[in-house]
């Protein structure tokens, strides 16, 4: 059989002036698909096998290409938006015909030129389409363990839960709300530490290092910010978590831990309305 949306090996059945027709290796299905002449490798003969990808052309006919797209059926990948219309968006996936992302399959407002994580599926009309609803595409059998560092792409953010992440664009992960420090959006690629592997195999993730390492980094950040402001920061125990997060990209509890360390080391001191460098 010839499978839509997949890379597969097919056999050259016959040549025509505008390309070659391919069929399955056994030649039993009777199905044929055209590989246009511009993509036919030199010296190809009837009976040769070629690895091709099958999709639909602008007239919805099955067509073969020797190019491998950025994602194939069931896979997830980060694709750039080339155009946005009233019915959906069109994405660059490495083929002549752009990949359609229907409006109903979008989970956030898109911007032309930005990249978003999508999966490839076949719709009810037997056409290849993209979807941003990729949760069911992701696996929970990652090889990672606690404290491993991984790369992930944020694909959805729930303000009460946290950020949902595709680790390696394959595995399901979550940055819990309390760990989501800073401003992020779907499509952002981030480095993460595995804080827990759940019983179901899904990963809990953090943008931060272990507490003692992170405390040192947070303390350095506070010192750097204070130096930038002439040795003073307008933050104290009475500052709101929102103010601290906006300016320092850390939680209030992380701020208090780092300040406690700096006070102990006598590198800062509390003054009216904030903290001041001691010069030590």
Salient structural properties:
single chain, 280 residues, OB fold (Dihydrolipoamide Acetyltransferase, E2P), five-stranded antiparallel beta sheet, 3 helices, elongated
Descriptive notes:
This protein is mostly beta strands and 280 residues long. Helices cover 14% and strands 38% of the residues. It has three helices and 18 strands. The strands form four sheets. The protein has a five-stranded antiparallel sheet with strand order 3-2-1-4-5, with no helix packed on it. The protein has a five-stranded antiparallel sheet with strand order 8-7-6-9-10, with no helix packed on it. The chain has a five-stranded mixed β-barrel with strand order 11-12-13-15-14. α1 (211-228) crosses α3 (252-264). The chain is elongated.
Secondary structure layout plus pairing:
Layout: E1 7-16, E2 19-23, E3 33-36, E4 49-56, E5 62-65, E6 76-84, E7 88-92, E8 99-102, E9 115-122, E10 128-131, E11 149-158, E12 162-167, E13 171-176, E14 189-197, E15 203-206, H1 211-228, E16 232-233, H2 241-248, H3 252-264, E17 268-271, E18 274-277
Parallel strand pairs: 13-15
Antiparallel strand pairs: 1-2, 1-4, 2-3, 4-5, 6-7, 6-9, 7-8, 9-10, 11-12, 11-14, 12-13, 14-15, 16-18, 17-18
